[in-house]
Design goal:
It holds the Pfam family PFK. It is an enzyme of class 2 (transferase). The chain is α/β, with parallel strands linked by helices. The protein has 2 domains: about 1-135 and about 270-310, 3-Layer(aba) Sandwich (Rossmann fold), CATH 3.40.50; about 140-265, Rossmann fold. It has helices at about 15-25, 40-45, 50-55, 75-90, 100-110, 140-160, 175-185, 195-210, 240-250, 270-290, 325-330; strands at about 1-5, 30-35, 45-50, 95-100, 115-120, 160-165, 185-190, 215-220, 255-260, 295-300, 305-310. The relative contact order is 0.17.
């Protein structure tokens, strides 16, 4: 068969390992094609046959060697017709789509319309893909956010300041939660638990009185600022950390600074966990192809790698809930 591999949406550490591993497994039996720039690669016919030798030099780097985009191939029927025609001309039998909810939703439509068989691999540093405990890239992003936060903490202590660290996370606050737990932040703000900023300022004031510095971690998704949206309807985020820092300083009178590591936390080389997860996901995707088990997403559940129908995970987000919300409330609840 002709098997195409694409990475869509935001880049994430571990993507290159997943692409390399899958290529290495497939190339003995099938023709493997890299689809460049995500779904846009089919619209523009940026598709090239590759071997594992082409990919090995980039396998352990962050980002994605085959590039990415936030292109929606089904944005309108005119585009969908071009997409369908190009797929027929390219002759791809299977597409392995590595991405989050938007990328996987396009994969599900591709399967439903009978354009190609698909297998999905979940990735996003936000860790918010429904149906899997972990996604490729999350562990690395958290570790990088922790490094930034710990470095920032040393200067807060030295100058006796209050600090706010803004990390990525649209609907889900997993990065902020894990970063806050790992650094024992004095307050963490996540989209799942809206909180009045006066509560944050009061907590900061109490902590500062005791030890002369304080640390707050905030998820960027607690506030949207409008502006242009991407093809899947998402607004750009970022900037709430600065706004929160200004508010805390105004209310408490304490010198407050903010840092926003932003995209830096998702550009690092993948951690051991993300490397092994990428290998395990790619291996199960290969098995799904060999089993003709299409329309499935591979997932991590309780330590095992399983397959779930892509249609079951669409339109939902894996949010901080259950045990994790209780843990959040233990440290930062009312």
């Amino acid at each position: 068969m002709k098997v195409g591999i694409l990475t869509g949406g935001g880049d994430a550490p571990g993507l290159n390992i997943a692409v390399y591993t899958l290529t290495k497994l497939l190339e003995g039996k099938h023709e493997v094609y890299a689809i460049f720039h995500g779904w846009r690669g089919i619209l523009d016919k940026e598709v090239r046959r590759v071997t594992s030798r082409d990919l090995i030099d980039f396998a352990f780097e962050g980002g994605t060697f085959i590039r990415t985009s936030r292109t929606n191939p089904f944005k309108d029927e005119t585009r969908a017709e071009v997409f369908a025609r190009n797929l027929r001309e390219l002759g791809l039998d299977v597409i392995v789509a590595i991405g989050g909810d938007d990328t996987l939703s396009a994969a599900a439509q591709t399967q439903a319309r009978g354009l190609a068989n698909v297998v999905g691999i979940p990735k996003t540093i936000d860790n918010d893909v429904y149906g899997t405990d972990y996604t490729i890239g999350f562990d690395t992003a958290v570790n990088e956010a922790i490094k930034v936060t710990e470095s920032f903490k040393t200067t807060l202590i030295s100058h006796e300041r209050v600090g706010v660290v803004e990390v990525m996370g649209r609907e889900a606050g997993w990065i902020a939660l894990f970063t806050g737990l790992a650094t024992m932040a004095d307050f963490v703000l996540i989209p799942e638990k809206p909180v009045n900023w006066d509560i944050v300022a009061n907590r900061v004031k109490e902590v500062y009185k005791d030890r002369r510095w304080a640390l707050v971690v905030v998820s960027e998704g607690i506030k949207e600022y409008g502006g242009p949206k991407d093809e899947f309807g998402h607004s750009r985020l970022g900037g709430v950390g600065n706004e929160l820092a200004q508010y805390i300083e105004k209310v408490t009178g304490l010198e407050t600074r903010a840092v926003i590591p932003g995209h830096i936390i998702r550009g690092a080389p993948p951690t051991a966990f993300d490397r092994v997860l990428a290998v395990r996901f790619a291996t199960e995707a290969f098995n799904a192809i060999e089993d003709d088990d299409f329309g499935k997403m591979v997932a991590y559940r309780g330590g095992d790698i399983v397959r779930v129908p892509i249609t079951e995970v669409l339109g939902k987000n894996r949010l901080v809930s259950g045990y994790w919300i209780k843990l959040y409330e233990t440290y930062w609840g009312p």
